[in-house]
Amino acid sequence: MHVHNYEKLWLGASLLLIVGFISTIVYGAAGAGITMVNDEGGQVNPKELGNTSGFDDPGVTKVGPNEYEVHIVALQFAFQPGTVELPANSTVTFYVTSRDVVHGFEVAGTNANTMVIPGEVSQITVEFDEPGEYGIVCHEYCGAGHHSMAAELIVREPSNFTMQDDTQTPTSGNETTNATATPTGGESA
Amino acid sequence: MSRLSPASLLIVGAFMVPLFIELPVVLSFVGVNLPMEVSLGMGVVAFAMVLVWSEVSEKPEAADA
Amino acid sequence: MSTPGETAGETVESAREMLPDNSFLIQYPHVSRVVRSLFLTAFVAFGIGAFMGVLQALHRTGIARIVESADYYTFLTLHGVLLAIVFTIFFLAGVFTWANTRSLDRPPVSKRFTWFWVVTMSAGTAMAGIAMLAGLLPSIDISADVLFTFYAPLQAHPIFYIGLAVFVIGTWLAGIDWFRQFLAWRREHPDERIPLQSFMVLTTMIMWFIATLGVAVEVVVFLIPWSLGIMPAPNPLLTRTLFWFFGHPIVYFWLMPAYLLWYTVLPKIAGGRLFSDPLARVVFVLFLLLSTPVGIHHQYLDPGIAEGFKFIAMTNTMFLLLPSLLTAFTVVASIEHGARQRGGTGYFGWLKALPWRDPAFTGMALAGLMFAAGGFSGMVNAGMNINYLVHNTLWVPGHFHLTVGTAVALSFMAGAYWLVPRITGRKLYSRPIGLFQVVLWFVGMVFMSAAMHRGGLAGIPRRTAEPQYPQVAFETVAGSVGSLRLQLAFGGVLLFVSALLFLMNVGLTAMNNKPARGLDSALPPALSGPEQSPTVLDNLKLWALIAVVLVILAYSLPLYSIVQGAGLYPAGQEASPAVIAPLLEVIA
Q1: What is the complex's ipTM, to 2 decimals?
Q2: Which CATH class, in words, describes the domain spanning A46-186?
Q3: What CATH number does the domain located at C4-587 have?
Q4: Could you report the per-residue pLDDT of C189-213, keeping only the tens digit for each?
Q5: Is-above-0.90 flag for pTM?
Q6: Which of chain B's residues have a Cβ under 8 Å away from the Cβ of C356?
Q7: C20-27 CB contacts, 8 Å cutoff, 24+ apart
Q8: Of C24, C148, C252, C371, which one is the catalytic site residue?
């Protein structure tokens, strides 16, 4: 088969580019420790969430010195709880599931992002380094009221943080932050 | 006699659009804050200059057109 | 308008006698009629879909909300299905019917069979269309507000799923028709290489047969019985996975007719010849092999699928870049050759020698340029850890409006300016309007797609009627969210104007009484001809077998583990909205 020299050069460069892309992703997984949402969350019965440990009382639980678990139930058209408060410099594992249809869970402007599928539990571990206020939006169409489905996430200074469930009023702080939430690997539930 | 035909002006103008839309983003990487409106305005001015150039410049005698 | 050639006025009748004997319309008047009717359906769907598109661009940016936000999703479903399924696939069927006939130099085996699949595809489209449109009328208890992806347990009326199944069967019959045409040719030419255009049609259809198995199983085995109330709700993760088994290769199904035009028609328009026939064949074989075992890359963020399966899909996806990168080389090289034939010189000076006044050329060239940009944003999507940042944000529609919305749609429009005169015998109504229209599409898409990509990086979600939330402040890299909204809506309006100009121009061409000229349907041979390519490339059975093996390797374990996880019919799943009361409960 006749292949022109320029074609060979281009083919080589293309393969190099592809291998380069794959390498960066491998580095992201192995070096930076970014793991994918996977099958560790397990399965639940979406009609029995009231009797399922964690989802019967969705919200924040402290599980270690700087470690928290957050259980969130997505339903048409809200998240439960509607406000999540966490301290900065903490490692947080979200467990998200749906009571009805497919939803999405995204902390806007960060890479904390997952699909929420009824019957499956999405488990993502993220780190919040700096205080700030984030919006949580449903990013998968879930019915006629989809556009009203959102929640908020407040990351406080550790000194200002006390464990309270859904009772604190949102502060009017408009501090901007460049903090990003980074899913990290290695943690097991 | 215009240097550029209407079709050429159309093509040249089309290629300027992505340049001036992406300019603020590129500049933001080096820390320069250029508002989108200003960038698009610069694009309009640049296109107007091409128009004027096309009208006033002498068409070369050579048959490269 | 459907059969303009048949109701020709005197001018065109006399002009027909002036057409060269080797013009497609004279040689294959019946096939021309089939192509015309397929194009008509495609363009009607394009018009309605484009109108839905501009409504959405104005609605979600808050500039003009003409409909209720709850109805936005009905319009979004129509936009997705009419443009991504009906417009693209009907146009594909037209191009493939033309290309297969032209390159094999013989008509399809049976006229009746050809019309049978045209009618089947149309009937399926009508059924699904009725279900979607009825969603706008609350008095009718039918709806299909499930968007293009119809993820269960969101439920549509059964007529939507049945229409979809009928449509897919229609495309299978079309594929069978093109294979019968090829086999008839093969009997007469046992030792010849498969003509290039026919080779492209056949490899694409093998890919399609494999890919549609996923959606066929999803719809026929799970969704239709469930929507009729005779079976319980299926495993939502399983039906999602089956959807994306089909949902990624369909993007190459859209793209392949555009590639066919770039490889075979564009070099001719540019005044040159295809650079390499062997490489074109390699590219189509690579698409056949790699299009399907990558679907899980749409599910990087799905729970219930192990990371290893996602990694395999990611690797395959990255290698799928290869045929598109090779295409970029071959197409640019072919165009440059054309420009030099036309007297172009210099490193970049040859660009000036290209036929930029021809809307068919400029449209395809701009489409190719946009595809390069779309390819780069696609590499970001494919990178599974960067994908966290953009998954299901506005970035994603920004990406695919560059690929299917421009690389494919603009190539189809440009291709139509070249092809419609060849199947009607009528002169293109206006080349300047055509040129303005394709450039307007390019400019409109630059505005809209750039705003979408940027909005996506700020976290603005896709598929949302009102992405304005009291709880959420989106922060952009450059420019305010308000200016991005304006930019998006402005681009959307330009695109709609461009779509109207296209439809007007093609409609007036179909009624134009001036005869087309220069309709020679022969395509120039490639610089490196088929004799340079190994004959194994033409072994379609071998490639089909390898493609099936790759699909089995990529999908058997994920599907097995999904079914092991929650089962085929997990407890507690419920349809929303419940269209028909489950028959099982009614009986019980």
Answers
A1: 0.89
A2: mainly beta
A3: 1.20.210.10
A4: 999 999 999 999 999 999 999 999 9
A5: yes
A6: 7-8, 11
A7: C20/C519, C20/C520, C22/C520, C22/C521, C22/C522, C23/C422, C23/C425, C23/C519, C23/C520, C23/C521, C24/C98, C24/C101, C24/C102, C24/C422, C24/C423, C24/C519, C24/C521, C25/C422, C25/C423, C25/C424, C25/C425, C25/C519, C27/C521
A8: C252
